[in-house]
Amino acid sequence: MFSSRSFILAPVAALAAGAALGVLTRLLETNTSTAARSAYLVLNEAWPWSALAFCAGLACASRVASAAVAAASLAAAVTAYYAVHEQTTWAGALSATLAWGAVALAVGPILGLAGNLARKRGLRGLPFRLMIPLLAVVETSARLRAEVSVQGPVGETAWTITRLAAVAACLTLAAHTMLINRRHRSEG
Predict the structure, then answer these.
(1) Is 167 within 8 Å of 148 (Cβ atoms)?
(2) Scanning 48, 127, 131, 152, which has its CA 20 to 30 A from the CA of 120?
(3) Side-chain-side CA neighbours of residue 165 (13 Å)
(4) How far is the C-alpha of 54 from the C-alpha of 129, rounded, in Å?
């Protein structure tokens, strides 16, 4: 059962995580070290931002709360991302925040609901649990095809490692679900 504290903790944690993702992504963008550049290339993709909303939805007990908290976490990430950019004019930051904020408010509830549905046990929740790692596989594969010539070896390494980790996550999630299902069938 969820306590009243969890109804406060999940939204606060999601908003804080969103703000942290936005700030960290923006700060890494201007850092020229190889490690920072690699981290920026990974964090500035759709799948980590989607994972934020998904995890916010996963942390909430109700589907309505999952949708609302996920959208709010993405909106916080977008706002923080543009708030710390020192080279953008206020008008540019405001228009970008409003545009990407609208995307966050449209996509966030869907990702939050998927996160909530990932809580279902067994095969019913598996497609939802695979959503973010599969998105990472698709996105990093596309970036390796289209952007590796621009980003060079740093991008190639970052995206290759991310893709391999995402494939491993997919296989692990599927294997775990199959083992749990097999165990429940043998017990039942």
Answers:
(1) no
(2) 48
(3) 11
(4) 9
